[in-house]
Amino acid sequence: xxxxxxxxxxxxxxxxxxxxxxIAALQDFKGTGMSIIEISHRTKEWESVMNECRSLWKxxxxxxxxxxxxxxxxxxxxxFLYVAMNLLENKAGYLETGVWAxxxxxxAKGLGNAICIASSADKTYSYIPKDYVIPEDLDYFHxxxxxxxxxxxxxxxxxxxxxxxxxxxxxxxxxxxxxxxYALIYGGAQKNVGPAGVIFAIVRxxxxxxxxxxxxxxxxxxxxxxxxxxxxxxxVFPIFVMTETLKWVKSMGGVEAMNKINQExxxxxYGEIDxxxxxxxxxxxxxxxxMNVCFVMAPGYESLxxxxxxxxxxxxMVGIKGHRSVGGFRxxxxxxxxxxxVEALVECMQEFEKLHK
Length: 357
Known about the structure:
Layout: E1 5-6, H1 16-27, H2 44-60, E2 67-72, H3 75-87, E3 92-96, H4 99-109, E4 114-119, E5 140-144, E6 146-147, E7 152-153, E8 164-167, E9 184-188, E10 199-204, H5 221-226, H6 236-251, H7 254-275, E11 279-281, E12 292-297, H8 305-314, E13 317-318, E14 329-332, H9 339-355
Parallel strand pairs: 1-13, 3-4, 3-5, 5-8, 8-9
Antiparallel strand pairs: 2-10, 6-7, 9-10, 11-12, 12-14
Helix pairs in contact: 1-6, 2-6, 3-4, 7-9
């Protein structure tokens, strides 16, 4: 297989053990003589996977007993609607830190009174807003903890006077999280915990059943809690790969160990960006994401962008082109991205510097 360094923002690099387990299960799932993609979700073999996946979530994040973990299709973008449908009765507040946060707010506005509490749009979402006040009359306050396009991250669990809802699509399992500070955590799997095709939702049960609107059966979190994520046929293959990915996280020492590794990778790459005169970071230093490192050519070197992109590609760097809306470069260094890949990118940047001194 061709050797590459995968920095894609999602779908992204997955642990090799999870991929190997997936290949084996595609050929023969648990000795059934059938592939994982043709197994019935009502068999004891599949139910054991669902139970293991749920247990791993609870163990790795130390999820309290009054929460449930569910797995659904539709992507995190559908969860923007789920959240508002299930929780918005009078008023909701949103912290607008990027494109996905803005889209989440838009969906809520379509259902009721949803307001922007603070925004960093004035500086192209290059920082996390500070010194804002969360009104105490909100049904919930929604945040997006990591912003993949702009490379900013809320790296702490805030104290919130109302129900706190978090889209953690791109930094879940990258650091310890005090789940008890959140009413609801959700996200797509395709960054840190599996392939595209399934979302996770960690729901505190007491927040449900409070709205007066009619809830369609499939858009009611209680439906999927009661059905143990199998009210309808679940996305079997992505959940299987998620389970194997979480087993790998556990084998690595859990989220505390992953956070240490991730911080080392981020420090290494940001250190080179700050040292190398050809490059400059785009996110405020105090808000830099440890998952998505965004940077551009430094002033005076903008004309070298395409040359560096080709230079990096020749050396096996994949997925470092910035999002189409902002340009530049983005290296997504999720859990399964090995430190060796970050070291290879740093070496590539240093080589390019030598050519243009």
